[in-house]
Amino acid sequence: MKTAVMQQIFDRIEAAETVMLFRHRRIDGDCVGATKGMKGLIRLTWPEKKVYLIDEEKSDYLSFMGPDDLDVPDELYKSALGIVIDVGNSDRISNQKYALCRELIKIDHHIEREPYGQINWVEDGRSSACEMIAAFYEAFQDKLKIDKETAGCIYAGMVTDSGRFQYEGVTGDTMRLAGLMLDQGVDTETLYAHLYLRSFDQLKFKAKIYENMQLTENGVAWIYVTKEMQQYFHLDFETASTAISSLSDIKDVLCWLAFIDTDTEEIRVRLRSRFAAINGIAEKYHGGGHACASGATVYSQEEMKALIRDADRHIGEYKSTHEGWL
């Protein structure tokens, strides 16, 4: 369904000579797929336009979607329309030169906390930013051009951010839009191989998670992925963060947490839940996100333990006041 804000965005893109695309720090499949998907739509539809996606952060896991662009002079930013996708807060934008752009559009599916764009298209009920890009294509498919590579990037983000279409926010519309992308000829066998095949070390790491995971009194599962563990299994930060998915299938567990050491004093936190919203806890610890999928940061093991206690208390209260949570 075409909306007024979609029309505004289409009109701005159509009028722009140069478009700069931006995404969040600590890249994932959704922000990469959404920005590359939007870039593909623009370049295929308006080949005369200059379209740049510049981000120094790289990922071996997501490299199959192709390289980003090299940086350009600041003057080019200043004349460009900027489009930031999948970023709730401006301080999380990976390339901070976004602020140089003459006009800024925000496209995001997180709970609104900072409307930093001149145009803000925010739908926190969407399962992914890529779902929004697919909806944008659907609304203007009589004008926009797409190919299977562009559709593959968009579909990859829809798959990864929705947990293979399992998480809250997946609707019939999600599946219809995913089908629209598949109709472009996406090679799902190769795509899923890129996304889900694991190295021998990564599988051994998964076994280590099951050996070391902890469980609180009220059913919060958690794991601390130390620097030593990362070095032993030859993990980069992104691969270490996949520990969160290994905790998702434990009976009677409504919340699961992964704490990942970084090269700084930060310990990054992945928070996931079913039924019980946990974004409030993430916000207390320097983060935020969706109701049942958020991120945070703690700066010591004492603060890590405090977050675990808060999560345990929250889940205990939820279980005592709700029924039907399995």
Radius of gyration: 20 Å
Characterize the main sheet: 6 strands, mixed
Regarding CATH, which class of the largest domain?
A: Alpha Beta
How many beta-strand segments?
11
Topology:
Layout (H helix, E strand, L loop, with lengths): L3 H12 L2 E5 L6 H17 L4 E4 L20 H5 L2 E5 L17 E6 L10 E4 L6 H11 L8 H14 L10 H11 L5 H9 L3 H13 L1 E2 L4 E6 L1 H6 L4 H5 L13 E7 L5 E7 L5 H6 L3 E2 L3 E6 L2 H21 L5
Parallel strand pairs: 1-2, 1-3, 3-4, 4-5, 7-8
Antiparallel strand pairs: 6-7, 8-9, 9-11, 10-11
Helix pairs in contact: 2-4, 2-5, 4-5, 4-6, 5-6
Task: Write up this protein.
It is built from twelve helices and eleven strands. It has helices at residues 4-15, 29-45, 74-78, 129-139, 148-161, 172-182, 188-196, 200-212, 227-232, 237-241, 279-284, 301-321; strands at 18-22, 50-53, 81-85, 103-108, 119-122, 214-215, 220-225, 255-261, 267-273, 288-289, 293-298. The strands form two sheets. Strands 6-7-8-9-11-10 form a six-stranded mixed sheet. It has a five-stranded parallel sheet with strand order 2-1-3-4-5. α2 runs antiparallel to α5. The chain is an alpha/beta fold and 326 residues long. The model has no long low-confidence stretch (mean pLDDT 95).
